[in-house]
Amino acid sequence: MKVLVTGGAGYIGSVVCAQLIAAGHDVVVYDDLSKGHKRAVSPKAELILGNLEDRAGLRDIFQKYKFDAVMHFAASIEAGESMKSPGRYFRNNTAAAIALLEQLSEHGVSRFVFSSTAALYGNPERSPIVETDALQPTNVYGESKLLVERMLPWFHRIHGLSYASLRYFNAAGATAELGEMHSPETHLIPILLQVAAGRRESLTVFGTDYETPDGTCVRDYVHVSDLASAHLLALNALATEGQPKQLIYNLGNGRGFSVRQVIEIARKVTACTIASVDAARRPGDPAILVASSEKIRRDLGWNPQYSELDVMVSSAWNWFQHHPQGYED
Ligand code: UFG
Question: Who lines ligand 1 at CB under 6 A?
Answer without folding.
Answer: 77-79, 117-119, 168-170, 186-188, 191, 203-206, 217, 219, 259, 282, 285, 289
